[in-house]
Amino acid sequence: MNVFIAILKGINVGGHKKILMAELRGLLTEINEIENVKTYIQSGNIIFNASLKDTSLLEQLIQDKILDHYGFEVSTIVLSKEELTHVINKNPYAEVDIKRLHCTFFKTEPILENRQKLETFDASPDVFTTAEDCVYICCETERYSKSNINNSVAEKLLKINCTTRNWKTCIKLLEMAKSL
C-alpha cells in the first residue's frame, strides 16, 4: 500500500466548514481505495494508505466524499510520502527556528508568468523561496498571521489554489506517514 498525506484547505476556521476529525476518519474509510486513516490536529491533516498511486484521483475522491456528506466543497491536496519527504529535505531555511517557517503547497502547477509574479513579490521583512510545488516561507517574527507573504497572496499571484501549513505540522505529518 502507498502512503499519502492529504491537507484540506480552510476547514474549522472561524466556525466555518466544521468537520470533526473522528467523523472524517470514518468517512474516508468508506472510500474503497483508502485505509488506515489517521488525522493530525483539527485543521484537516490526513495520513492514509491507498491502493491507488494517482494523487489527483485521490484528491477528487476525498473532495467528493466531503461534498456528499457535508454539503460543501473543500480543496484538497494529496502528497505521497516521498513528495513530502522531498519538500522537507529541500527546505532552504533549515537552519532557521522552526517557529518561523511555513510551507504553502500548490494544488496545481502555476504557469510561468504567474510564478514570476510571485518570485518578484516584495514580502519584506519576510523572505520566501519558490520551489516547483510549494513556497517556503520564513517569517521575520513568529507571526505568520502578520506576514506579508501568506496563502492569500500566493493564491492571488499564482492564480491557483494553495494550502499552507507551519513547519512543525509538516514535520509531524512526515513522521506519522513514516510510521504508517
From TrEMBL:
Listed SUPFAM superfamilies? SP0830-like
Give start-end of the signal peptide: none
Record protein name field:
DUF1697 domain-containing protein
Entry-linked Pfam families = DUF1697
Q: Which domain of life is it from?
A: Bacteria
PANTHER family per the record? BLL4334 PROTEIN, DUF1697 DOMAIN-CONTAINING PROTEIN
- Tell me what organism the protein belongs to: Zunongwangia atlantica 22II14-10F7
InterPro entries per the record? DUF1697
